[in-house]
Amino acid sequence: MTGLAHWLWGPQGIGVPELLALFGHFTLLSLLAIGGAITTAPDMQRYVVGERQWLSDAQFTASVALAQAAPGPNVLFVAVIGWNVGGAMGVLATMAGSLLPSTTLALAATRWGAARKDAIGVRAFTAGMAPLTLGLLLATGWVLTEPVRTQPVAMLLVAATVAVMVRTKISPLWPIAAGAVVGALGFAG
Fold it and tell me: For a Cys-Cys bond, which of 23, 26, 47, 57 suits 93, CB 3.0-4.6 Å?
């Protein structure tokens, strides 16, 4: 594979049918992404790791971690997964699949909801989204702990991070930094 072909189609060298399947799957997930794209990470992992075997668990987790550590929007992890699966064309497939449907739906729903913001149905719907979003975020966190679940120190660090986030208003960057230090020193591995 030449350099340009590798850049365009990625290390897997997937073709157009696979890219269309990737786009289609991420399109469906986009419409389920209540609370942001990260809430659909468990199904992304199931699809690209378990079903298609385009990435390993470690590659998937590293893709999410790398994108979350970088400055910018949280949805960047979708681009990193796309890149690791299918190069530049994979980025196009995953990002277009993730952004087009949800953006269109969000724009339409926001306009509709703003015109009816005092209606009891709209208020009830808004209140009901909070526990659903929390559950999806917890599922995402559980999937991302897969590589370290057998390591007690790492799981203790995860539990401590959750406790700090629930009980305080401390920035999430501090527990993330603590985890990085513990990992760098080799205490969590």
Answer: 23
How many CA atoms lie within 13 Å of 179's alpha carbon, on the beta-carbon side?
19
Q: Say if 103 falls within a structural domain.
A: yes
Q: Are 45 and 60 in contact (CB under 8 A)?
A: yes
Domain count, the chain: 1
Q: What is the pTM of this model?
A: 0.63
In a domain, 187, yes or no: no
Q: In 12-171, at which residue ranges do the beta strands (DSSP E only) sit?
A: none
Q: Which domain holds residue 117?
A: 3-129
Q: Contact 99/75 with Cβ under 8 angstroms?
A: yes
